[in-house]
Structures are given as structure tokens and as C-alpha cells.
């Protein structure tokens, strides 16, 4: 057991509290008192990683175990990395400054594809071999989970194992298995075979992969009896029945989301066809208002945070939203803290609620129509009409808001130039809505900010078969949209098109991409989600050096193709996604789960085979309300 | 706006050591506000659109410096015992920060004129007589209007070599004139022939008024 000395180098780097530790509520244990040491790695900088709710949950769950000490690890910024490499300081944990290679587990959360090179850079900084097969008996078990783990294949040679689905329960099973394995005195491979039997665990080295001549996947076959042909994701059925952190670590520096987050529900009833989160987190499961208010009280008392935020894919879809908002507002008004309600839908957004939120603190308002024309919104199953949007921005403007942010995507399947021009028209109508109202202050001008992202087809969505626009096509559409915007109150920003393409390649990638990642790392790719670090030229060279064509991964795919991620069972079936893709082609919408069950398959993950929508007391009431609201 | 409001003035003397030395002043303000909330103290808020706790700091501390003489003023809406304020804050404050004492009333922070620092370099200069005798000590120094060549000599009141390999410096401090000891060390490296301080540690140990009476 050793620790690193970073006092000298901390004086020379920017934002030293990224590395110095000692934050309030960070867990302090004596490493000599535990059997298992777990390094939880977020493969990006401190301020990004510390904003991530999943890490807080698993950190809490692991540290509740007396036999385990979980510590945090983040990617050092460039200046710190230089200092570390210069002084031969290996990657270390925040809590005890222990070298990461001395841990029993190195668990990485995969939140976005553009963090993949950071993983390699961090393993390298830690002195841990990059590839699973090169790791010796003493090396930590390097494993991953999170949304990108649902297609693990581009990282299959790097990680020893993956966890599919929600971690609260399975992580304990993995720790128990580790203790047993230690007691049995087995080899490294014995542990991997042992956990391959646990539901939700995928051990890539236990599978052989064959390809067709055209490069597509031919088969993926278990090479030992322990490996299951299909890996079923884990879910926690009753969210009220599991742990939620009563304390969050309170960072010293300003991080991206620096507030008390409450997880209101998991899953989504909506079924937007581009949205991976809306599929992989199904079925919907809600926490009770009682539990959420209790979580909020605990967190405010233990952190001193000045803001509570609700976390879910679509906050206003919470069945008891009014009740929850009411009770939380009573709490926040008493404690003089703010309440932020992200992910409100355009179609069920109420004025009275907004006024109460505004009373405490007024934040910017963001809406996500996602597409500019009604036809395109029907294609993606957004189920939001122009009237919905106009009503919501109208309420916002009348309520005194001056700035509205609108999210859109371009490059969607079955999109035409008219759909893109529709984005500009819609934005102009929003500006007109401001001037049409009697309640708005005409001496001030509104600003309507468009944030436009390039669509990336993701595995486990109805658009997983879709072709992805090339960089040239995306750039043309960006220019087209720019030329269409004539109103000076409309501001337009867009994402880098090359990043979207690269994201798409890895999202729907296969095992062959492992070598490209390693090559990209060797060429210096890291911190790719930071504009100042990203270099498409280096990436192009990495693909060229490996003789791999990006277009193979962005192409349109046929229904009979076997996908590298088909062996993962997320509950939602491939048949359902095909049906949805066909409906998209015909621009036919699908009602959300509470209006009508579409038989997506996620209910099979529940113990009694029925998903919680059937059990929601208020679901019928909600349906009535929606009908009454038209 | 609210003329009925009765507020109670307090000030705190606190220390910042160990890892807490890496917390910047701005981050410290946020950390401190959250500590007040956790302690459940009846803090008075400003009455604007975005209410914020009413408090003021005597003299921001640079990142990397430790101190045992930090001073801040706050207002409460109820009167509490000084010890209770100190103890409730210390129970919920991050490691490395400790309230040494709480006092009822206004502090003398507006009288602040000098601060004493203890500097621990890797190497002390053999003699500082020549350095102290310089008529002008010009060094590039960060000022409100950017980095400028500045004569820092008028802001050095005293420098003493201590027997334990440290240096004591008494320098101008406050919003009007302020000199930080790392700038002095930089000047020593420039003006004392052959001198190389190496990395230094900086500690603020006292603040004074015009007549060198300690403010605490």
C-alpha cells in the first residue's frame, strides 16, 4: 500500500481542488480496515464527473459495505497530466491518493463515446495494461457500466467485464463473489467465469466473434459453459426500496451540476424514436413523493446546497408531479433554496407551477421540439405540436422570461430540406409570439436561442438501422438552416459535425474498433469532448492506420443484419423497434405508455411480467386529464 | 426596504490549513455559505431579487496560502452565544477550515493596513541587507489593470530571517495597497545575486492596523 505526494505539483496547476480532495461528505476509511478497494473512475475531468448522479449512488452503495472502500478517480486536465508524467506520479484516487493500479477494482462509467480515449489515457497513467489479455494476476479488475456499456463491443478488448443495467444490487453481488473467490484462492480467469453467471454481467473474453466477408457480424458464441448466450440487463423494480445517498460530496470548485439532485423516476413512457435513454431505461418506475421529499430534506441538511433539481428523462411525466412540486416548493421556500425543473415537456407545462418556481429563482427556460416540421416530429414520435410549443413559450414570455432556448436535431432519418427550414420558421413564430402578447414588455427584445445537434443513430432505438449523415451532408444542412434564419432575435449554435460522426461510429461499432481506439490514444487523442483538445485529423489517421473505414459504421443497415449489441437483452425487443421504424417511415405516431401499451417488451423485466404503468394508481386519472386537456 | 428588520453583527476568526489552502477565495465564499446553511444558523440575507447571505471578508487569501488569522463579518437575524456559533459551524465545516473564535459586534477590518506572513522557502538567502537597502524594487506584478512593472519597495515594511529556515514579512495589506509575499520572493530571486528560493510555502499569521495593532 502506498500513496502519492502531489503537494508540489498542486501549486503549479490550475484549479487544484480538482485533485486535492477533503471535500465535505467524502468518505474517509482506513484502507487497512477493508478487504476490497474499489476505484470508481469517471473518464473526464472532476467538474464533469462530480456532476454525475450514478457515481454518487454507487459510491454510496459501495461505501455502505464495511468490507469495501470506494474512492473516486477523474481524468487530470492537461497541465496536471504533464506534471504527473514529469514527476512519475501514477494516476491516483482522490480520497487517499493511492495509485489506481493498487486497487482491486477499477470501475469506469461510460456516459458518452467521446470519453473512450480518456479511459486508455487513464489506464496508461495508472500503469495498468490497456488490453484485458495483457493484465497479470495482480492487476485490478477493470470493468465498466453506464449507458454506453449497452454496446460494449468497441471496448471489449479493454475491459475485463461489463455490467448491463442498474448497479445498486449487482455491484454488491460482484463484491460478494470477489470475497468468495479470494477465499477459494482462484486465478483471475476463475473470478471472471464466476461472475459471468451473474445476471447482467458480460465477460467479453468468454465469447468468440466471427465476421462475414462484408465485415458485418456473423456470430458471437460463448467459448465456455459459464458464459450466457444473451445478457439481460438488470433493473431495480422498487426504487423506494433501495438506497439513495443521504449525503452528496460538496465540491469546493464550481462543477457543472452543483446541487442536490433527486431522482424522480427511471425510464420513460414517451418513446421518441431517436432516444436511446428512452428505451434502455424502460420500464418506467417512479419513486414516491414521500421518499423524494425525505431525500430532499436529507440532502439539503447534509450539503447546504442552495438548489434542488429533479432528475429524470421527462420531469412533468411524473404521475404525482403537482403534489411533488407543491411539497418541494413548500420546503424550498422555507429553506430559501431554489428548485429547478429540467426536462419539462412542452405539452404539459403549467403556469401556476412556473410562477411558484419563479418566486424563488428564475432560471432560463429550455424546450426541446427536436424537429422543425410537424411531419418530422411525427417521424421521430415527439408527440408535440406547434400549438403546444406556442402555448408554453407564451406562458414563459407572459411570465417575464426573455430568453428561450430551443433544442433541435438535424440529420434525422427521412428528413427533407423543408423540415430543416421549418426549424427557422418555428423559431420566428416564437419571436412573433412575444410581440403578439399584451403582457410582454415591447421595449425589450426577446432572444430565442437555437441549439442544433447532428442526429446520431444509437443502438437499441427504432433508428438503429438508419444511415447517419456524412460530415458534408451535415455541414450543408447547417448552412441551409443558417441561411433560413432571417430574424435577428434568433440565435443559432450547432455542434461540431465531425464529433457527431465519430460518436455514431463508436455508438454502433464492433470489436474491430478496439484497435482504432488504441491507435488514436497512441496518436495523442484524449479529452475529445473538449473542443480545445479534439483533433479530427488524428482520428482520421488512426482509422487509416488500422485500415478501417468509418463509412462502414455510419451506413444504413438492413433488418436481417446481426448487430454487435444484439446479445444484450434490454427488455425492449428488436421486433418492437422494427415496428417503430416502419411507423416512422410512414410518419405515424405511437401513443405513450399511459395512453396505450405498445408491447415494447420491457414489462418482461418485472417480476410478475407487468410493468408499473399498470400499477400506477393515478395512471387512469392522468389519462383522463390528458384527454380533457386535448 | 424592510425597516423592521433587526440584525445582529458578528465576526469570525478562522484558519485555513492543509488541503483547504487550495480553495480559491470565490470557492471559499460558496463553501462558507453552504456551511452556514448546514449549521442552520439564522443568517440574514440581502433583499434583492436573488437573495444572498450578508457577509464580508477582510482580505482574500491566495490559492496555496495557509492562514490562522482570516476574518469575516456576518449578520444574523437572531442573537446567539459566540461559542454556539463557533461550535455549530465547526461541526459541519470541511477539513482544514476551523473557526477559532466568534465575536459579537463589528470587527475592525476596515482599519486593515498590514499583514504578517511566514514564508518557508527551500533555501533562505544568506543576507537580505542589500535587498532591503534597494531604493527601488521593480517587479512585474498583477494589478487591477493587468500585469505591470511595479516598485514594491514602499509596501515592504519589514522582512526578517528567522532561525528555523523561514522568513517573516510584514507587507501592505488591504484594498488600497496590497503586496503578496510570493511577489516579494520573486523580487528576491531577481535582485539577490545567486539566490534561488525554490518552491515556497506561505502562511498568513496576523493582520494589523496602521499602528501595527493586531486586528483580531
At a glance:
The complex is a heterodimer of chains A (630) and B (216). Chain A is α/β, with parallel strands linked by helices and 630 residues long.
Give keywords.
heterodimer; A: 630 residues; alpha/beta; Rossmann fold; Transcription Regulator spoIIAA; six-stranded mixed β-sheet; four-stranded parallel β-sheet; 19 strands; 35% helix; globular; B: 216 residues; alpha+beta; Alpha-Beta Plaits; 2 domains; eight-stranded mixed β-sheet; two-stranded antiparallel sheet; 33% strand; elongated
Question: What is the CATH class designation of the domain at 7-220 in chain A?
Answer: Alpha Beta
Low-confidence stretches of chain A: none
Q: Gyration radius of chain A, to the nearest Å?
A: 24 Å
Strand order of the largest sheet of chain A: 2-1-3-4-5-6
Question: In angstroms, what separates the terminal alpha carbons of chain A?
Answer: 65 Å
Q: How much of the residues of chain A is beta strand, in percent?
A: 5-15%
What kind of sheet is the major sheet of chain B? 8 strands, mixed
Q: Give the name of the CATH architecture of the domain at 7-220 in chain A.
A: 3-Layer(aba) Sandwich
By DSSP, the count of extended strands of chain A is 19
- Assess the beta-strand content of chain B as a share of residues: 25-35%
Q: Give the helix level of chain B as a range of percent.
A: 10-25%
At the third CATH level, what is the topology name of the domain at 7-220 in chain A? Rossmann fold
Uncertain stretches of 5 or more adjacent residues of chain B: none
The CATH class of the largest domain in chain B is identified as: Alpha Beta
Number of helices of chain B: 4
CATH architecture of the largest domain in chain B: 2-Layer Sandwich
> Kindly, what is the distance between the CA atoms of the first and last residues of chain B, rounded to a whole number of angstroms?
32 Å
Amino acid at each position: 500500500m502506498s500513496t502519492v505526494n502531489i503537494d508540489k505539483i498542486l501549486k503549479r496547476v490550475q484549479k487544484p481542488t480538482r485533485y486535492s480532495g477533503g471535500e465535505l461528505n467524502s468518505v474517509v476509511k482506513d484502507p487497512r480496515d477493508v478487504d476490497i478497494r474499489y476505484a470508481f473512475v469517471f473518464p473526464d475531468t472532476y467538474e464533469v464527473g462530480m456532476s454525475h448522479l450514478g457515481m454518487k449512488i454507487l459510491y454510496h452503495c459501495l461505501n455502505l459495505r464495511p468490507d469495501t472502500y470506494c474512492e473516486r478517480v477523474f481524468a487530470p486536465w492537461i497541465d496536471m497530466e504533464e506534471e504527473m508524467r514529469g514527476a512519475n506520479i501514477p494516476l491516483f484516487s482522490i480520497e487517499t491518493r493511492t495509485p489506481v493500479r493498487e486497487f482491486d477494482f477499477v470501475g469506469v462509467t461510460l456516459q458518452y463515446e467521446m470519453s473512450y480515449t480518456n479511459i486508455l489515457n487513464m489506464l496508461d497513467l495508472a500503469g495498468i495494461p490497456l488490453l484485458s489479455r495483457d493484465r497479470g494476476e495482480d492487476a485490478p479488475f477493470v470493468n465498466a457500466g453506464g449507458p454506453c456499456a449497452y454496446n460494449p463491443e468497441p471496448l471489449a478488448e479493454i475491459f475485463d467485464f461489463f455490467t448491463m443495467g442498474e448497479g445498486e444490487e449487482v455491484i454488491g453481488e460482484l463484491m460478494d463473489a470477489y470475497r468468495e473467490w479470494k477465499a477459494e484462492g482462484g486465478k483471475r480467469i476463475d473470478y471472471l467465469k464466476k461472475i459471468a453467471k451473474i445476471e447482467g454481467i458480460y465477460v467479453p473474453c468468454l465469447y468468440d466473434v466471427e465476421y462475414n466477408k462484408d465485415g458485418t457480424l456473423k456470430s458471437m458464441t460463448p467459448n465456455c459453459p459459464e458464459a450466457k448466450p444473451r445478457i439481460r440487463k438488470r433493473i431495480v423494480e422498487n426504487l423506494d426500496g433501495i438506497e439513495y445517498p443521504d449525503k452528496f460530496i460538496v465540491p469546493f470548485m464550481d462543477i457543472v451540476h452543483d446541487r442536490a439532485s433527486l431522482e424522480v423516476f427511471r425510464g420513460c413512457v414517451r418513446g421518441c424514436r431517436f432516444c436511446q435513454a428512452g428505451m434502455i431505461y424502460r420500464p418506467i418506475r417512479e419513486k414516491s413523493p414521500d421518499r423524494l421529499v425525505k431525500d430532499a430534506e436529507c440532502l439539503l441538511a447534509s450539503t447546504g446546497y442552495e438548489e434542488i433539481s429533479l432528475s429524470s428523462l421527462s420531469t412533468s411525466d411524473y404521475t404525482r408531479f403537482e403534489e411533488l412540486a407543491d411539497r418541494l416548493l413548500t420546503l424550498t421556500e422555507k429553506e430559501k433554496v431554489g428548485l429547478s425543473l429540467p426536462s419539462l415537456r412542452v405539452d404539459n407545462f403549467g403556469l401556476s407551477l412556473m410562477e411558484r418556481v419563479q418566486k424563488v429563482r428564475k432560471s432560463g427556460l429550455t424546450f426541446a421540439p427536436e424537429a422543425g416540421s410537424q411531419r418530422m416530429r411525427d417521424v421521430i414520435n415527439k408527440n408535440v405540436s406547434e400549438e403546444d410549443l406556442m402555448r408554453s413559450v407564451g406562458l414563459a414570455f407572459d411570465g417575464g422570461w426573455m430568453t428561450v432556448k430551443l433544442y433541435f436535431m438535424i440529420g434525422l432519418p427521412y428528413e427533407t430540406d423543408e423540415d430543416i427550414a421549418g426549424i427557422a420558421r418555428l423559431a420566428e413564430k416564437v419571436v412573433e409570439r412575444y410581440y403578439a402578447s399584451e403582457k410582454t414588455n415591447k421595449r425589450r427584445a426577446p432572444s430565442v436561442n437555437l441549439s442544433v445537434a447532428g442526429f446520431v443513430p444509437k443502438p437499441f432505438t427504432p433508428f438503429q438501422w438508419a444511415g447517419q449523415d456524412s460530415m458534408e451532408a451535415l455541414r450543408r444542412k447547417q448552412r441551409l438552416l443558417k441561411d433560413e434564419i432571417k430574424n435577428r432575435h434568433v440565435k443559432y449554435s450547432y455542434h461540431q459535425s465531425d464529433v457527431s460522426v465519430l460518436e455514431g461510429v463508436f455508438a454502433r461499432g464492433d470489436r474491430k474498433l478496439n484497435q482504432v481506439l488504441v491507435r488514436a490514444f497512441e496518436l495523442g487523442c484524449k479529452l475529445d469532448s473538449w473542443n480545445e483538445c479534439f483533433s479530427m485529423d488524428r482520428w482520421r489517421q488512426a482509422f487509416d492506420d488500422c485500415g478501417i473505414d468509418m463509412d462502414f459504421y455510419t451506413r444504413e443497415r438492413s433488418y436481417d443484419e446481426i448487430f454487435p449489441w444484439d446479445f444484450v437483452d434490454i427488455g425492449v425487443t428488436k421486433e418492437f423497434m422494427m415496428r417503430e421504424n416502419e411507423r416512422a417511415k410512414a410518419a405515424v405516431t405511437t401513443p405513450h405508455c399511459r395512453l396505450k401499451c405498445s408491447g415494447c417488451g420491457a414489462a418482461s423485466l418485472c417480476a410478475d411480467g407487468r410493468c408499473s404503468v399498470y400499477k400506477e394508481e393515478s395512471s387512469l386519472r392522468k389519462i383522463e386529464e390528458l384527454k380533457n386537456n386535448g | 426596504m424592510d425597516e423592521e428588520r433587526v440584525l445582529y453583527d458578528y465576526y469570525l476568526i478562522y484558519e485555513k490549513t492543509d488541503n483547504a489552502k487550495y480553495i480559491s477565495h470565490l470557492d471559499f465564499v460558496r463553501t462558507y455559505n453552504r456551511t452556514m446553511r448546514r449549521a442552520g444558523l439564522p443568517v440574514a440575507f440581502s433583499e434583492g431579487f436573488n437573495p444572498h447571505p450578508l457577509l464580508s471578508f477582510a482580505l482574500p487569501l491566495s490559492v496555496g496560502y495557509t492562514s490562522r488569522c482570516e476574518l469575516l463579518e456576518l449578520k444574523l437575524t437572531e442573537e446567539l452565544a459566540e461559542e454556539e456559533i463557533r461550535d455549530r459551524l465547526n461541526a459541519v465545516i470541511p477539513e482544514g477550515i476551523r473557526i477559532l473564535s466568534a465575536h459579537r459586534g463589528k470587527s475592525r477590518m476596515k482599519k486593515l493596513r498590514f499583514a504578517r506572513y511566514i514564508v518557508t522557502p527551500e533555501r533562505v538567502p544568506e543576507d537580505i541587507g542589500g535587498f532591503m537597502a534597494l531604493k527601488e524594487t521593480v517587479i512585474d506584478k498583477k494589478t487591477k489593470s493587468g500585469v505591470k512593472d511595479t516598485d514594491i519597495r514602499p509596501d515592504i515594511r519589514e522582512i526578517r530571517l528567522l532561525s528555523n529556515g523561514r522568513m517573516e514579512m510584514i507587507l501592505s495589506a488591504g484594498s488600497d495597497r496590497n503586496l503578496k509575499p510570493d511577489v516579494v520572493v520573486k523580487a528576491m530571486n531577481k535582485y539577490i545575486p545567486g539566490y534561488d528560493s525554490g518552491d515556497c510555502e506561505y502562511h498568513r499569521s496576523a493582520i494589523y492596523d496602521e499602528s501595527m495593532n493586531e486586528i483580531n
